[in-house]
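ok so I'm stuck.
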Amino acid sequence: MNSFRNRSTISALTLFLIASLASAQSFPDVKPSPQQIAWQDLEFGVIIHFSTNTFLDREWGDGTADPSVFNPTQFDPEQWMKAIRDSGAKYVVLVAKHHDGFCLWPTDQTAYSVKSSPWKGGKGDVVGDVARAARKYGLQFGVYLSPWDRHEPRYKNSAAYDEYYQAELSELASNYGDLVEFWLDGAGSAGHVYNFAKIVETLRTYQPNTIVFADTGLFEYGDARWVGTENGRVPYENWNVIDRHGYLRWRPVEADTPLRNQHWFWHPDDEASLKSLNELLTTYDQTAGRGAQLMLGLAPDCRGLLPDSDVARLQEFGRALRDRYAHNLALAHAPASPEVSAALDGNPDTFWTAPAGSRHSSLEVNFPKPITFNRALTMEWLNAGQRIQKYSIDVWTGTAWKTVAAAQAIGHKKIDVLPPVTAARVRLNILSSTDAAAIREFQLYNVEETK
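replied:
not stuck anymore, here's the structure
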């Protein structure tokens, strides 16, 4: 009898191990959802901080601010959205409630909101106004709802506060149209353990397609992950698939950084903190140019307007980006070749594919006469997963190929910045891929550097 039990246990264990191995994940096998693909194509968004902190010269409120301080005199979210659109951003995330607990919509869950402020006689709704303005200007809209709440008394009771938070989330998720992104900020907790599974379950009831942003540590609950700093830079080879506890998920990076150094909220007499155009362009190259989303922080002032200097800088930034990447030399000067045309046509919906089953391949562009370039922009087709593991960009010297740029990951978009080089033959050399490489775009630019 004991022998039979032992054999049964061993057999069951063997079947379990076989099943586990059969279902084991590998990085190349993990693929993005359609929602993640669409979100990554947005590339550039903004996050807006505007609340009682704006009127009190604070970055972090403690939950004691009187709602009466919230009273913008010229509130105009359309002014914000025009500047955001001009910057080249494609989506907007509004901080609907920061850590101080003050709500920018007339929630039924607490009086600590705009309905207790003098603004619009307590009848205003910042979230609704911003959502409408964003969509009017062709921008997608999302929200940030801080789990940490320094005002709400129920925060000390985990179960009661979770119910409160989910009720707030239900209001935002059901009353303001499709949400492109929902931010789960990990800042603060004061010992509170959040029921993240229930939070995401509540969100998905109303918003099945929303991208959930969360710290990498909230592995099971996010669709996108934080880059790890607030300086707007991806300092590592950017792989979309990450590993936590031996389980893999597609979690692309979003890199957040404020337009004004170290400041997410507006502060008076703060012009020196405004980032220069060159800083912003470098940020773009090191975020969107390294396969991540750029999330730029904006802060309306106590009038309810973006400061004039911020508006001017956003317009300048958008204009500079358009000028930098308006003249693709590969499209303008290279003869159309059927073999590579899908990667040179400026249309990210078409793509070149290497021979089936190949692990090494190259895409070559030939010009009638030498061209000079200092930027190479490459986009990988990611629907089937991130396949390219090592690549180089080479030029023909007349006698041999010379490598002018090399790295590992390409991902959604890779911008290689290099000293000016002149050549009539240029190739993207896929040195290692897990399967046939697929390239949406291979573009070359000669960018005049900003002083």
